[in-house]
């Protein structure tokens, strides 16, 4: 009777937990799951693969494909280490999005031990817990977005650009390919601020950013890095393609009629173009080349596109 009561109590405790819980034996076979696990599986049908009693959790993780396969592989390694006694704790945060919402979970694996028997006999398996951390993750992402976004134009800022560009430079080194930079600067923008006021200048920057943004592909990064200066990283684009896009942007801005509180204003862009090479020590090396090309465009009379010779 006492054993039955203890068993029922254990089941009740597991079902009372809001995290998705499962218990596996030393080979990874699922021995028990709680109510939250079952409810998540039922609501997630058609999304993540359903994992229930008798299923080998390690096999499921090992054979996982698709967007979450990297996290599944890491989870397999972590659970395997816990079951093998190489570690007493494993934890990983991973996305598990549905067609209707973004979701993130914090997965934890800890050993399951029987208090009786020898040291080896006490090892029974492991407990895996998946806790929904979506609310916290969304707050973190929102803070990250605010920290990496220019508040006036809603474009990425210098900090985000430099971090992203270094990642792409490392990818270029590993896999090869083509990549280019555009350095863009509004001509005589100080005169706009001095003559028409900073509110008019802000309106110009917002309109130029919004219109230029439409000319880029999803794989391109267009950012405001300070004042009237913008930069674009063009992944998979050679110098000729970068020049064509730069001319398109120059013509687009030249044709704008921007309505401000001080009247309708017109501005122009000077643009420097540079290729990014795998041997560049950092993205700053390529930015310096683009900056020299921009200076050449300014000295050539502005409203022009130049490439580093």
Itemize the secondary structure elements and their pairings.
Layout: H1 2-16, E1 20-25, E2 30-33, H2 35-43, H3 57-62, H4 69-83, E3 90-95, E4 104-113, H5 119-122, E5 123-132, H6 134-147, H7 158-175, E6 179-186, H8 189-196, H9 198-213, E7 221-226, E8 229-235, H10 239-254, E9 258-260, E10 263-265, E11 269-275, H11 283-299, E12 305-307
Parallel strand pairs: 11-12
Antiparallel strand pairs: 1-2, 1-5, 3-4, 4-5, 6-8, 6-11, 7-8, 9-10
Description:
- There is one protein chain.
- With 309 residues, the protein is α+β, with helices and mostly antiparallel strands.
- The chain folds into two domains: 2-139, Beta-Lactamase (2-Layer Sandwich), CATH 3.30.450.20; 148-307, 2-Layer Sandwich (Alpha-Beta Plaits), CATH 3.30.70.270.
- It contains eleven helices and twelve strands.
- It has helices spanning 2-16, 35-43, 57-62, 69-83, 119-122, 134-147, 158-175, 189-196, 198-213, 239-254, 283-299, and strands at residues 20-25, 30-33, 90-95, 104-113, 123-132, 179-186, 221-226, 229-235, 258-260, 263-265, 269-275, 305-307.
- The strands form three sheets. It has a five-stranded antiparallel sheet with strand order 2-1-5-4-3, sandwiched between helices. A five-stranded mixed sheet has the order 7-8-6-11-12. A two-stranded antiparallel ribbon has the order 9-10.
- A hairpin with a 2-residue loop joins strand 9 (258-260) and strand 10.
- Helix 8 packs across helix 9 (198-213).
- The longest helix has 18 residues, at 158-175.
- The chain is elongated, with a radius of gyration of 28 Å.
- The protein starts with a helix and ends with a strand.
């Amino acid at each position: 009777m006492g054993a039955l009561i203890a068993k029922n109590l254990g089941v009740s405790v597991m079902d009372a937990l809001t995290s998705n819980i499962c218990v596996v034996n030393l080979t990874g076979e699922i021995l028990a799951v709680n109510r939250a696990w079952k409810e998540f599986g039922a609501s997630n049908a058609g999304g993540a693969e359903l994992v229930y009693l008798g299923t080998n959790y390690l096999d499921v993780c090992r054979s996982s494909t698709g967007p979450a396969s990297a996290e599944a592989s890491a989870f397999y390694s972590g659970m395997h280490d816990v079951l093998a006694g190489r570690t007493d704790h494993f934890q990983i945060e991973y996305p598990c999005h549905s067609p209707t919402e973004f979701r993130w979970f914090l997965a934890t694996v800890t050993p399951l031990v029987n208090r009786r028997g020898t040291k080896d006999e006490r090892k029974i398996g492991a407990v895996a817990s998946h806790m929904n951390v979506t609310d916290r993750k969304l707050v973190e992402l929102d803070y990250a977005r605010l920290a990496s976004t220019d508040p006036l134009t809603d474009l990425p800022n210098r900090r985000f650009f430099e971090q992203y560009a270094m990642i792409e430079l490392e990818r270029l080194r590993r896999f090869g390919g083509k990549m280019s930079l555009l350095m863009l600067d509004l001509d005589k923008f100080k005169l706009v601020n001095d003559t028409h006021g900073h509110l008019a200048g802000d309106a110009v920057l917002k309109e130029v950013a919004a219109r230029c943004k439409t000319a880029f592909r999803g794989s391109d990064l267009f950012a405001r890095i300070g004042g009237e200066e913008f930069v674009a990283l063009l992944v998979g684009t050679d110098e000729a393609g970068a020049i064509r896009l730069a001319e398109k942007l120059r013509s687009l801005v030249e044709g704008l009629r921007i309505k401000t509180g001080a009247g309708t204003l017109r501005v122009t862009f000077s643009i420097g173009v540079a290729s990014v090479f795998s041997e560049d020590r950092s993205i700053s090396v390529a930015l310096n080349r683009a900056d020299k090309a921009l200076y050449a465009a300014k000295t050539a009379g502005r409203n022009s596109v130049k490439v580093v010779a």
